[in-house]
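Build the 3D complex.
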Amino acid sequence: MAKENESYKELESRRSPESLKRLYLENLKLTKKAIKESTGKDNLIIQTIKSIEDLKVGANKLAKRLREWYELYNPEFSRSISDHRKFSQLIISKSRSELLKEIGLKEAESMGADIDKKDIDAILLLAVQIITFYDTKEKLEEYLDNAMEQFCPNTNALAGSLIAAKLLEQAGSFEKLMGMPSSTIQLLGAEKALFRHLKTGARCPKYGIILQHPVVAKSKDKAKAARMLADKISIAVKVDYFKGEFIGDKLRKGIEDKLK
Amino acid sequence: MAKENESYKELESRRSPESLKRLYLENLKLTKKAIKESTGKDNLIIQTIKSIEDLKVGANKLAKRLREWYELYNPEFSRSISDHRKFSQLIISKSRSELLKEIGLKEAESMGADIDKKDIDAILLLAVQIITFYDTKEKLEEYLDNAMEQFCPNTNALAGSLIAAKLLEQAGSFEKLMGMPSSTIQLLGAEKALFRHLKTGARCPKYGIILQHPVVAKSKDKAKAARMLADKISIAVKVDYFKGEFIGDKLRKGIEDKLK
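Done.
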């Protein structure tokens, strides 16, 4: 180590300060360029799916808060409708008596307290916020759909944009996803259960994210369906990575026929 | 027990089905009325402060996501500004070259990738969402301010609307807050530390939510300031509960003078 340091010092002493500075700047430029070029479409897709998930969690949380608040005023109506978005829209556009009429109740029968208009306006502020939340989420999903169709048409056609993007998110990059065997793809998103299996000998998980795919979710033998789907996805990803022909539809039809 | 049941059955057999039904309906009506009347202004205030807190957490989470995403495109600018709201507004209103110019950089020197316009539009969707988030939070804070001023003017003047509302939230209702000794008010929001103290003999907490009050936060002896402030708050709450005269300003001035 001491010797290495010495030889480094020797080398340094032979260099003029200017040439060192030039070297540093040149190096910095190259590194910056490398960073700039390392951002691919897959990074953008990963950020998009993460944002969509954050928006989903946030919207649900706020909607629950809204209901708790609004139920002081009109509990019966809130209990009659489970869709958060529709609920928010309705309480903005209609009055309490109209809403109660829809579910066949009179205002006098309600357990809700009589609240001043300006207090209700505050509640509705939150409802408006929740609607813009769902709108943004929808727009981002549309964008994701388009981006996935261009970036990996086969994987997208086979798995659907949300599942494909989630797989990509778990893998970290498209290149990494491409290098994964189908058994790994099958378990992406079930890491916790997998490591519990390896550590404690608990049962091995049979599917991760791809359980959300209709082919797997509807199947009776989910483990088998998950294995087959992961198999095809792993093919589709490789075709996409090497810009092969479009076979996504064929792959999807094949698996749907087999699992009928 | 068996005897009680028997006598209940006897009682029931003496009643006609109609009279029983009438009794049931009458009871239901009274219960509904009691529920309706149990909602006070303090319930609304508690919901408001909970919503404000949810909005705050949500906005911060989304803003971090936005930055991670936007930094693929323009990392230097994101690092130069820490205010999330301002950051979101600026990236919507100005182009990358303008933003980089503001921090004295040229576009060619940036490490950010060149991203298509429609990909950037997706990022900006999230930025717009974050701005509406902060706007809603601000409007609710305004509403809370007004509501607190009307509902408990003394506590509000002494503690400020956010802290007073948080104390109310922790206590559960204004009546409960009114019944609390000042030592309990002092520790509201530090329950975890308090129970750790009781259970394991760790150090006793000296302040909870009221640490956020400028009088306590700026003080050198925070424990003493917290004790004094909790003392005055407990007086203010009782005055508000029994609709006494306005002495909030005097209380606040007294404590500020003492701690100078």
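The mean pLDDT of chain A is 89.
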